[in-house]
């Protein structure tokens, strides 16, 4: 390939191209600071902060309603555990501790929601003030501290905006609660420490009152145990032999001051666990009962017969010559008697003739 020969306008064209390229590069060093959009570098944006605060308020409201519905269902489950025979006290106590933690979470979420509402209304003050206002230090610090302790993703974005606005030093002071800048009630409700045993027992008693369950705790708490967390379960409420149902009845927890049972001899088997005894059973003695020759007398009340009224028989004519009439004569008399009073003489003569015939035979 042959190159084009040099021309005098070539240098002029190259200078124009380089000047055009330099004009496209912005000169940020000569641009005033208030015209630079710092948000493109991860800076503070009042518009984004306002949107995130509004979304956080809605998310907190949804989470609170959902948690409240689950709390009612869990309370019903605890009541069912205490209504069983034997009651499952240890499992119910663990469930009650979870109820206390959920109650504390709902309380903390409601306080955080109020703080978000306040910041949303004062967004203009936050935007034009370089430092955090004195009356909002506790509010902003509490939201930064609680952002990673509650399951609200929008609070993490709000925390990021405040870090860009007030600096990393302000964020670190809020995380370590420097100068007690946090809301003490929120800190207490979001604490990881377990509740006191007395509070757990109070929750169980209130649940029994609400669902009308007759239950009394088997473990009596001492004064020192009331302020301490609930002790680890020992399994006293778990019945033995649940599959076969042959185990003994569950007993309450044995305290250290209770007297120990007397020692049993070696080879002793508790009656509740004694399933098969290899020794022969004792003989069965049967006593003979005396035979009564006379049958037992029936009581007057047994087999009582009802009284039946029988009307008296109608009077009949006296027989002739001391002899009884036969059945045929009675039938004839009945049929003639039905004829009327004039047939009485005819029946008497007929009977006399028949009687004489019988004599001749």
What does it look like?
By secondary structure, the chain is mostly helical. It contains twelve helices and no strands. It has helices at 10-24, 46-83, 89-121, 123-128, 137-146, 153-166, 168-175, 184-189, 197-211, 223-226, 327-337, 344-360. α2 runs antiparallel to α3 (89-121) and α5 crosses α6 (153-166). The longest helix is centred in the first third of the chain and has 38 residues, at 46-83. It is elongated and about 185 Å long. Mean pLDDT is 76; it is low at 25-38 and 254-278.
Secondary structure tally: strands: 0
Please tell me what the overall shape is: elongated
Helix content: 40-55%
| Oligomer category | single chain
H/E element sequence: HHHHHHHHHHHH
Distance between the termini: 182 Å
Rg, please?
55 Å
What count of helical segments does DSSP give?
12
Main sheet summary: none
Q: What amount of the residues lies in strands?
A: under 5%
Average pLDDT reading: 76
- Which blocks of ≥5 consecutive residues have pLDDT under 50? 25-38, 254-278
Based on secondary structure, the structural category is mainly alpha
Task: List the defining traits of the structure above.
single chain; 361 residues; mainly alpha; 0% strand; elongated
Can I get a quick summary?
The chain is mainly α and 361 residues long.
List the helices and strands and how they pair.
Elements (H helix, E strand, L loop, with lengths): L9 H15 L21 H38 L5 H33 L1 H6 L8 H10 L6 H14 L1 H8 L8 H6 L7 H15 L11 H4 L100 H11 L6 H17 L1
Helix pairs in contact: 2-3, 2-6, 2-9, 3-5, 3-9, 5-6, 5-7, 6-7
